[in-house]
Amino acid sequence: MSGGNWKEMFDAACRGDQDLVAYHVQAGVDIDYAHPEFLATPLVACILARQEAVALYLLAQGANPRLWSEFDALTPLQAARQAGLPAVERALLAQGVPPLPEAQPAPPPARGWVARLLNRRSA
Q: Which CATH architecture does the domain made up of 6-100 adopt?
């Protein structure tokens, strides 16, 4: 798949230019490719740029919903959670991506001998 221009598509995805993204997808640009200069996937990049419509479009066009973005050190689901895009999160879950663990509550403050031990170490 070499038709189109991956860098232009990547930039369009981050800007939210869905028409230009669609042009490149239809021209055969690999939407799961991570260019060696970028090391980022278009899906994760547009999610982090809060371009919800483009992210949903890429998913509908077959973007890998589990593909790790090396530069961002995130999966699409992690990126959607970080960017606060619940519609993208739902779309990813609907495609079979396992849910992220819920945030764990902070442990209660140390008491008794544990607190004394911690206080001695910090003194």
A: Alpha Horseshoe (1.25)
